[in-house]
Amino acid sequence: FSGPAHLFRLAGKCYSFVESTYKYEFCPFHNVTQHEQTFRWNAYSGILGIWHEWEIDNNTFVGMWMREGDSCETKSRQTKVHLVCGKSNKLAYVSEPSTCVYSLTFETPLVCHPHSLLVYPTLTEALQRKWDEAEQLLYDELITDQGYKKILKEIFEEARLLKATEEKEAEKQNKKISLEFETVEKCSKEYKQLSKEIKKLKDLLSQHGIAYKGNYGE
Predict the structure, then answer these.
(1) Is the domain of 44 the same as that of 99?
(2) For position 131, what pLDDT does the model report?
(3) Average pLDDT over residues 85-104
(4) Which domain holds residue 37?
(5) Where do the coiled-coil regions begin and end (predicted)?
């Protein structure tokens, strides 16, 4: 789970909506499914998306993205769920604005308070400080608006509100290595340490009468 803690009480529950011959079912933080209500032998029943990430705009959670549903031509089905204020928890509206991309409107009293969908309060103190620092940098014109948005995206990814791309995950894996060489001074220091290590290993080989045929490039 991620996002406003008070919405977690919706987890483990499912809400249905019937339109024409289709029944839609939304299970918050789980998935969205569609079932054709006919007697046809091959009636469609499938997944329109699995809980993936939030859509965030201007410090506000504006929707839940359910992605990687059943295949549809060359892509996967996906659904955006809009959370709106309502007297009870119910799935109120379903549409398909573009092929294989669905839009659901879910009404709930849990989002009626004006601050109920703010992002900032859901973050840890460390991430809130990081956001505050970014705000100050933007105010002091030390970063561009684009740079500010990039920092916010990193904050949201770290908070697991947004899903990092595969490239981003790979980048994280290599971050420790790249950080070691972010300055010439650090690079030189590391080079000297590695050179000492190589000398020790060469001496060890010599002690055991093993020839060393490599070179510094290798």
Answers:
(1) yes
(2) 96
(3) 93
(4) 5-108
(5) 156-204
